[in-house]
Amino acid sequence: MSGPKPYEIRGALGVDPKITSEVAPTASQAGGRFWEDKCNAGYSGTPLWKLQAERAQLEQEAAASRPAAQKIPEGFKPVEKGGVWYYSEKRQVYWKPTDGKMYVWDSVAQKHSELHEATAYDHRIAVGSCFHEKAVQVKHVVVKDLAKAGQALRLSIEHLDRPCALYALYEGHRGSSSSTSGPGSNVCAEFCVKHLHQKLLPKLAGFRGFWEDIRLEVALRESFEELDAEFAERHPSATDGCCAAVALITGNRLVIATLGDVGCVLCLRNGEAVELMRAHAVRPEEEDDDEDSEDESAAGYEAKLEPGAPLPVIRWTRAFGHLEQKRPNSMPRLLATPEIKILQLQPKHHGFAFICRALYNAIGKNVAVSTVFNRSAGRPRMASGALVDAAVQWLGQVGDLGLGSIVAFFDRLEAVESTPPMKKARKEEPSQVRLRHILLKHRECKSTIDKVRNKQVKRTRGEAERTLRAVLEECEGDPERRAFATRCKELSECQSCLKAGDLVGDLGWVKPGKYGQAFDDVAFALKVGQLSDLVDTDQGIHVVMRTA
């Protein structure tokens, strides 16, 4: 079958038959001959210079929409030729040019994790402790700045959120005469005080990404188990042991790990007190039998006894030490694996307390703790001492019972939920304050001479604290502070108590550094007219009031 020839088509369209191209023009081209007269015939008609200008503008817009070329930070070298990672041997950090961020290698997850920059929260934590002088087996640790402790070991934990602190209470049992602190002390508790942070800090320093809750749990659990194993290795013949409660605070998280039967109570601002951890005991306490008899595993009761078997001498199922109870066939077999709970701090949280079990039971448990918290008005040393005083009054004969506690109060937590922590305006402390105080010396002071009465001071630290706690109780019920002036004249062993009228106990205008860091931390945080907690310096125990 044949069709029209190309020249016949061109002729029908009115095209010059001399054109021999096999490409047929369009109807618009054939209908008019004007396109043949243009210098850029066959194109859009736009001048070449204009096309070039438009092309250059498009390239500029595309370049502006792409990420800017990243300048390689100083000290970083490519990990491999043509790769996406750069590494600094000095900083031990990776850099990724596509997003300009720093990364660290996560050996657990086997991947790169973004380097975490610590967030500094504005809330404050006031912590204090008190222990009866006969509680020689009870030891404690209060590290208000864990980063500084890390620096002492040449370990950096600057990537952890602030505040970063560690508090621990160890209640020893079966004290050994071989202890360096003398008969009745506890080798295991002393070992834990010295070595727990040496286990935990390297783990915290080893990963500089963001610490998820589960990672914090693993670090604490491994630290406890390694600490117990090292104690067994170094003291294989030791017969004593200890229970423990440890709190790690980083930013707005509170991590609590417990072994044994130390009381752990969380206090809320509405007056309620909640027992965070149940005692890890062989047998639940009698008043809780019915409630928890079917859910002992949730409370941490790991020991299993044969039916009808007598209760063992050791009633705990978790503890440091007690090595004879950790043999494979021992009954019960003790564990050193802690129970761990993590809380996000919220405005409703008032504080928490670690309390020796004998003290906790003597005062009436969490109800009494709530009462003491409310009466102490944010003064942790006053609260801790009041708990001990209440137990002594109830028990009468203390003996060698472990009577002691650590108390922490939270302040400014309201700001945590409102605005981003890094954008909040920080409250600046004054450059100087006007103060009055009451001072009581004790036998451990640098100078034990009462220059007001020209006599030797023979009281113990505990007696000085008990007297000043009573003064605080009295002054809290006297808003005009007349009781403060009366007690200052009567009791104070600083010559400022000889001043007249409203100047009794007056220290004048005080600048930071005059009386030491512990004094400054309390005094410069006070509001005008506010009374402090008990303040410990080498001069003695103080109660301070800010007057201007």
How is the secondary structure organized here?
Elements: H1 6-12, H2 27-31, H3 48-65, E1 77-78, E2 86-88, E3 93-96, E4 101-106, E5 111-114, E6 124-131, E7 138-143, H4 146-152, E8 164-173, H5 187-205, H6 213-234, E9 241-250, E10 253-259, E11 263-268, E12 273-277, H7 289-292, H8 296-299, E13 320-321, E14 339-344, E15 349-355, H9 357-363, H10 366-376, H11 380-395, E16 404-411, H12 414-418, E17 433-440, E18 449-450, E19 455-456, H13 461-476, H14 482-491, E20 506-510, H15 517-523, E21 535-537, E22 540-546
Antiparallel strand pairs: 1-2, 2-3, 3-4, 4-5, 6-16, 7-8, 8-9, 9-10, 9-13, 10-14, 11-12, 11-15, 15-16, 17-20, 17-22, 18-19, 21-22
Helix pairs in contact: 5-6, 9-11, 10-11, 11-13, 13-14
